[in-house]
Amino acid sequence: MKTLTQLVELYPNIHRTSCANLTAFCLRHLSGSSPTRTNADIKCAVAELYAVLPLTGGKVGAINLWRKSLDETLAFGWDAYLSLRTTFPVQGMFYKFPTNAP
Predict the structure, then answer these.
(1) Facing residues of 93 across strands?
(2) 3-class DSSP assignment, residue 93
(3) How far apart are CA 70 and CA 51, in angstroms?
(4) How far apart, in whole angstroms, are the C-alpha atoms of residue 31 and residue 8?
């Protein structure tokens, strides 16, 4: 994966067509939904690959790909937080987030 990361960094236009597949591969391993537990070294290598994937967008599309990856990362974090938070009852009831929050 480190070799693939270096190839994407050096030749991002070549990997533009496989960006969606590589993103899905990275997200599957980073989200913990792979069939077995992921090794820490592999997880770091996948994170490095995921970090360079926005380069495949070129000068114009890289910012959109970066924002999309940032939004997906934040969504994973919120999902993990909310699933953890709803497993612990607050005074015998589950906590509900206020609907009028900014």
Answers:
(1) 90
(2) strand
(3) 10
(4) 22
Asked which of 61-65, 66-70, 84-88, 89-93 is least confident by mean pLDDT, the reply is 89-93
Residues 6+ apart with CB under 8 A from 25: 46
First to last CA, the chain: 40
Place of tokens 């592999």: 42
Nearest by Cα to 16 from 51, 42, 53, 47: 53
Angle at Cα 29 formed by Cα 77 and Cα 13, nearest 5°?
100
Distance CA 61, CA 34 (A): 29
pLDDT at residue 86, as a whole number = 60
Q: Position 23: which residue type?
A: T
Q: Based on C-alpha coordinates, what's the Rg of the chain?
A: 17
> What is the reported pTM?
0.66
Q: Name the nearest CA neighbour of 78 among 31, 21, 25.
A: 31
